[in-house]
Amino acid sequence: MAVPAALSPVQDEARRRLGGKTGRRFWRALDELTGQPDFAQAVAAEFPTAFQGLSEPGRRQVLKAMAASFGLAGLTACSDQPDAQALPYIRTPEFMVPGKARHYATAVTGVGGYAQPVLGTTHMGRPTKLEGLPGHPCSLGAADAFTQAAMLGLYDPDRSQTPRFQDRPAAWSEFDAMLAANAARLDANQGEGLRLLTGQQTSPTFARQVSVIMQRWPKARWHVLEPINDDLQREATRLAFGRPLQVLPLLDRADAVVCLDSDLLGPGPSQTRNARLWSARRKAYQQGQGDHRLFVAEPTPSLTGAVAQDRLVTGYGRIGAVAQALAAELGLGIAPQGLTPREQDWVGQAASALVAVKDRGLVSAGAHQPAGVQALALALNNHLGSAVQRLIEPVPVPPPDGAASFAALAADMGAGKVGVLLILDANPAYAAPVDSGFIAALAKVPLSIHAGLHRDETARRCHWHVPLEHDLETWSDARAVDGTASLIQPLVRPFYAVRSRHVILENLQGRQGVDGREAVAQTWQDAWGGDFDGRWTQTLRQGFIDGSAAAEVKAAPVSSAAPGGTPVPEELELIFRPDPSVWDGRFANNPWLQELPKPLNTVTWDNILAISPALAREHGLANGDVARVTTNGQALEAACWITPGQARQTLTTFLGYGRRLPDQVGDGHGYDANVLRTAAQPWRAGGVTLAKAESKMRLACTQPSQALSSDQDLVRTVARDQATAPKPPKHQALSFYPQNTRDNKVTSPSWGMSIDTDLCIGCNACITACDAENNIAMVGKDMVAEGRQMHWLRVDHYYEGGPDTPTDHFQPVPCMHCEEAPCEIGCPVGATVHSPDGLNLQVYNRCIGTRTCSSYCPYKVRRFNWFDLTGKDSPELQAQRNPNVTVRSRGVMEKCTYCIQRISDARIQAKIEGREIADGEVKTACQQTCPTDAIVFGDVTDPKSAVSVRKAVTRDYVLLEEENTRPRTSYLARLVPGKGDA
Amino acid sequence: MARSVTAPKPANLRKPRPPSKAKGGQTASYEAITETITSIPLDFPRPKTWWAMFAGALSLLGLYLLSAGMLFWKGVGVWGVNIPVNWGLDITNYIWWLGIGHAGTLISAMLLLLGQDWRNSLNRFAEAMTLFAVVCAGLYPILHLGRPWYFYWMAPYPSAMGVWPQFRSPLTWDFFAVLTYLTVSTLFWYIGILPDLASVRDRARSRTAQVIYGLAALGWRGEARHWARWRRTYRLTAAIAVPLVVSVHSEISLLLAAGPVPGWNSTVFPPYFVLGAAFSGFAVVAMLAVVLRHGLGLEALVTERHLDLLGKMTLVTGLMTGYGYAAEVFTAFYSGEPAELAVLFDRFFGVYAFAYWGAIICNFAPLQLLWFGKARRNPLALFAISLSVAVGMWFERFMLIVTSLHHQGIVSSWHDYVPSFWEWSLYAGSIGLFLTLFLLFVRFLPIISASELKSDLKATEVGHA
């Protein structure tokens, strides 16, 4: 090859170096080839992380590294150092019986940082199931779907497992060294430039640690970013009472509740509490005590709206006007103009209901409504003398800057005032308001540290990422919405090299080797003083601290004048709501929640843009059509879902999707609604334009048909005065065939279930509980779209009436355990058979998968393993499984068993103790977690059992009675006002 | 079919006398019959066409193996089935193939016992068709299992754990019915072919052929005792086979009718299925008759009269099937059951209405041409009508399975069904399996019963003497 004669000196040098070399040699730039020192510097400056690998190791170094690698590889054969107190099984520890579950009372921090108390079940050290903690004064023994799913969060294979620096694995020792050096520097300047960013916190230990840090470094500051927050409620109480307070509704006392876009029964930290109290009142009402009326005015359908007697569908912006009209009707302020007749009518009805029940009425405005509207609701309650709400000091630890907390941080970061930023359990890179400029500002922070469970959007943008312990493997504490404090104790030692958030806070102060338990114990030692040990042990056993609920605050209203909001002209508006499955995105990596059908629309794995039927018709949009929503110069494209009961001019977008988590389960589902959410307008955006985009998205919903078929008598209603009437004896038709051959052989116990559709609020907690208890496989979006979801229990949802103002009905459907089961006839190999105690059993190892049972099942409660859904599960997921429930293989049918493993447990226990199984001793997983006690299970041959009592009233009915399958699962009809009701 | 090619006719073909009712057409002498039939396996007239068709059939068979392999490897999930439509093309094709496999026994056994001699030109290949169709059908229930490797659990074998099949299940009886049908059909077919295998053996020139055909002929020498015993056995087997014609498809229908599924749970199903099966079976026999007659130059043996009679049988069974349709609609209205009516209207107007109207149109519209003798005797017309019937009956089975399931039970679980690629490929592959077997049969075995044709001729001669 001819070489041009004239070459630069550099090229000459290059040629010289290349010449005479054999073999392949690669070079990146001529400068490198010529060995210019400038080049090394340039690389080091531009690619600091790459520079490390640039210097070529010599032969000796390579050999050394190899020897070290081999040596270190051998070390991995040694296990982790055992716990200081761990002992080998020379003698079996007391109470440790293989196959016997152990239970620990603890709590998980749910949404908003509030404690959700749980009773954790472990099998041989593996946590497998969480249940509501009986006796807890706030949750009252129930648990919501988020809490149930926390179990899977522990075993999430995508959890972060090691510290990372510059997004490469690093050692904790490096992290410790870095923080120690940092602490010394901060000591010198009183913590100037140190910022702590967290989600909302209720932990007393956290509060103590932060105050310790603030004392040591007075110039450090703490900020809070909670995307779904109660800031406006605090503002409203400040307007009404002169100070920020927390409002605690006492629904068990409420005879009439008026909700102004307030989803009291919807997902959130208070769901279990509110639902329990509501159902307590509802059950009394069913027995004929007093009135129980619920009026809801809302722009987008909610679970509270679904159970309301009178739901007004109106825009978000009109709620203020409706509130003012209600106030005027009750004699407070002046009625606004321009209410529609329907709104006026609703206001009149609601007002008269409130007046009728005197102090047993409550007006509740949603925490995302303008503070003025909420303050008006508080004023109305004062005006009515309502005894249905309690004011308490805010439970979350208040950040110094209050609501402006995050904006202040972002501004300081942008201004270069932040030297060290520790982000603890928050994900601002995803959830920050779009106008905060957080991501750009983060790049200006010299040292950013993220501590969290996942390597999320923020983790990837910070210098350091360190993994945190999950609530089920950590020592901590937290408060429930009523202020009751729980101690969080680990059910298991951490699987990975992770640290508790309290330890991270200690590390920040340069302290190493701290134990998380000590940090928590310190807090309570300070609080309790003497007799710490006894109280500590007792609290760990009980799970919560007696009498730690926040005391009621007697606050006098500062002004009687009704503030209220200014009526907004009806325009196309966009409102932001947390997603019922993944909330603000924190549960995006949890398949149990992703595959949980969202209440009302049953969509899984995606968020949708809720659009009213009328608006959809106007724009020619169908379900799954992608629409382009523009506001404030920002735009997003979202898949539409035509939502009956949606206000005509309101679009609802759900937060928590559009996550960018490469290689993780939660990556890329749905769209990110945060791009339209600004700090000034976190809940509503006006000036919206809607246009149809060309594309269409496949949405996976579990219930494509939600219209009640007129042929099927699935949902029944009974007048309230008939609610307790005994069931008329069943008419026995003459027949040639022997009647009910099994009836002669019925022995006690014989199991049955009763589901009260009047109590069901469609919260889906039962489905998640079933997932956890029965090792239900998750199948992913595509399979759900094909109709192959595996849930043993589903909550059917039906619309009744017109699409603009429909009535909702929920109906949980487990296996009916038919006495004359068609499936048992169909199976050619006897894989589904009847047990003496009335259960319809499925014998997995006998099943060959003809699917005849499912073809014959009128209720379609059977689920089939189309593929091997479990064999390739990671070891983490396998560890979560309940050892008492068979993991199903490919090609077999499965279905609800009435939690037969729990029945067996109770039977064995009863036999050992030589007694009958007591009523209520067997609680199915769905029943245990149900926040409204809608599900009751027990022995139907015992006339005194709770289930028999329920089945004895005229409200009791079975699904598809005409099929003559004689189901053991029966339903109680919904109540409608009868004679004597308003 | 290419009409231009005709096979050379044997030279010594005489102007024959009609076997029973003189109606023109051609028949042949003893030697000519034997010569014509046995020369096919020994000296195949159109090897190139055969090879071309065989290659096509084999590639489809390859597709079958691939689809089944995919199915076994991954699971039933590769199909489009779901809850509630957990049966799709699998059971559709199962019933379709089994229906086709119906006409063979009907033609052979029932018409033999009834003394309908015209069957003799058709029975052999009709029986072969039955066998192969039953093989195609019988594989489907195994393939459709979630755990196909345990299919033998359906059989009542003395298991060490003392578990037996569940005898109330229609599937258990399906298993027995199909197995019995396959066994008896094979026996009947093999007994029938014995004398002809001996004829082929006697005429075989190569040693290999002599040995193979000789072994297959089981030492048949044409003795009077052989003939006497043969005739007794043949008629006895026929007598056993005839009830099976009714039982097999009645049993299959119970797979659907025994379930509390609107659209299935009907007492009309057993006769409806038997007639429908005979209908589709006759149609496919007619298609094969037209093709074989033309392709192998058997116009002298499979005469226009046979086509005429096949046309009539197809028409008759078709009208009976039509009665079944009408009865089904009538029953739904007569019962007034909302669920039954809902299914009926869904079939008329729902997403799968194409299957219902496809069945109605393909089954009954072209069928009306068979009222006319000209259409019945025109091979091309008969072929086209029969093809339409085969397609129509497939639609019918698809409609029965899918429309009843996709809107069955509680409205919340309704879900539609779209067959996946692997379902279609398995179906195409099963046609390949059938064609492969049938082409091998055509190539290597006497496709028409020479002995019976000759005895038929004899009987006519005696009658005229």
Short description:
Chain A is built from 30 helices and 39 strands.
Q: Termini separation of chain A (Å)?
A: 101 Å
Percent of sequence in beta strands of chain A: 15-25%
The residue-averaged pLDDT of chain A reads 86
Report the sheet-strand fraction of chain B: under 5%
Biggest β-sheet of chain A, characterized?
7 strands, mixed
How many strands appear in the DSSP assignment of chain A? 39
Low-confidence stretches of chain B: 1-26
Trace the largest sheet of chain A across and list its strands: 5-4-16-15-14-6-7
* Gross morphology of chain A: globular
| Structural Rg of chain A | 31 Å
- What order do the SSEs of chain B take from the amino end to the carboxyl end, as H and E? HHHHHHHHHHHHHHHH
Helix residue percentage of chain A: 25-40%
Query: Runs of chain A with pLDDT <50, length 5+?
Result: 1-7
Largest sheet of chain B: none
Q: Please report the number of helical segments of chain A.
A: 30
Strand segment count of chain B: 0
Oligomer status? heterodimer
Radius of gyration of chain B: 23 Å
Structural class of chain B: mainly alpha
Reconstruct the topology from this structure.
The complex is a heterodimer of chains A (982) and B (465).
Chain A: H1 9-18, H2 30-34, H3 37-46, H4 48-51, H5 59-75, E1 101-109, E2 115-123, E3 126-132, H6 145-155, E4 164-165, E5 168-169, H7 172-188, E6 194-198, H8 204-216, E7 221-224, H9 231-241, E8 246-249, E9 256-260, H10 271-286, E10 293-298, H11 303-307, E11 310-313, H12 319-329, H13 341-357, E12 361-365, H14 371-384, E13 389-392, H15 405-414, E14 420-424, H16 428-431, H17 438-442, E15 447-452, E16 464-467, E17 476-479, E18 485-488, H18 501-508, H19 516-528, H20 532-542, E19 573-577, H21 591-594, E20 603-604, E21 609-611, H22 613-619, E22 625-631, E23 634-642, E24 650-654, E25 684-685, E26 689-696, E27 700-701, E28 717-719, E29 751-756, H23 765-773, H24 781-785, E30 794-800, E31 807-813, H25 822-826, E32 832-834, E33 840-842, H26 852-856, E34 863-864, H27 875-880, E35 893-894, H28 900-912, H29 925-929, E36 935-939, H30 946-951, E37 956-957, E38 969-972, E39 974-976
Chain B: H1 30-42, H2 47-74, H3 89-100, H4 103-113, H5 123-143, H6 170-203, H7 207-216, H8 224-257, H9 269-295, H10 304-335, H11 338-349, H12 353-364, H13 373-377, H14 379-406, H15 421-444, H16 450-464
